[in-house]
Specification:
Layout lengths: L9 H29 L2 E6 L12 H21 L4 E8 L5 H9 L4 H9 L10 H12 L15 E4 L28 H5 L10
Parallel strand pairs: 1-2, 2-3
Helix pairs in contact: 1-2
């Protein structure tokens, strides 16, 4: 639904929020009781880079994904002491059928759309579903705790054209549930295995 706040219909708004935000909430509501009972669990929500920085002509989508980012932070705080880690992946453009539809709704050929999308990407290309899946798999592994692999909590992990062949390459800012604000940029090593900011019991 490419539209701004004036053009966005209430039906469009409700449908986008229901799918992206309410759907994420209901899935978490369903699985959390079992995780709480066993004293461990990992939830990785599907956010978006536009849920952090916003984007043009996508008011309902940006709002829904921004909600997912803050839902992630809130659940990370609520359930950290129960051994449950909650994070979300916030990708930029990932090559999926969703982008073909987006190109059509904007009246662009795929070539035109692709050229506009990758021009400012450090790697000069879109991400792939396989790359996003690999990051999710890494984030779901390891132990909870306050250090080592898998110890991150409440992060919105960006996947947005960082050069994974260069550990010194800088990705987009990552948000922290502990600080509640953007605190700095992160390297690819930290994006894949965050070990900087954790939820620390008071």
């Amino acid at each position: 639904f490419p539209s701004n706040a004036v053009e966005c219909s209430e039906e469009e708004w409700d449908l986008t929020i229901d799918i992206n935000l309410k759907g994420t909430f209901l899935m978490s509501k369903c699985v959390l009781p079992s995780m709480i009972e066993q004293g461990s669990g990992v939830i990785i929500n599907n956010g978006s880079g536009w849920g952090i920085v916003g984007g043009n002509e996508a008011v309902s989508y940006c709002a829904s994904k921004g909600g997912v980012v803050l839902l992630t932070k809130a659940m990370a705080i609520d359930h950290a002491r129960q051994g449950i880690r909650v994070n979300c992946l916030c990708p930029g453009d990932v090559r999926t059928p969703m982008l073909d539809e987006d190109a059509r709704t904007h009246g662009l050929t795929w070539e035109e759309y692709h050229a506009q999308a990758v021009v400012k990407r450090p790697m000069g290309r879109m991400g792939t579903a396989e790359e996003a899946g690999a990051l999710v798999a890494r984030g779901a592994g390891g132990h909870g705790g306050h250090g080592g692999h898998g110890g991150n909590q409440g992060h919105g992990n960006n996947l947005d054209g960082v050069d994974s062949s260069n550990p010194a390459a800088v990705a987009a800012p990552i948000s922290s549930a502990a600080s509640g604000q953007y605190h700095r940029t992160m390297t690819i090593d930290e994006v894949i295995v965050p070990a900087v900011t954790f939820i620390t019991p008071a």
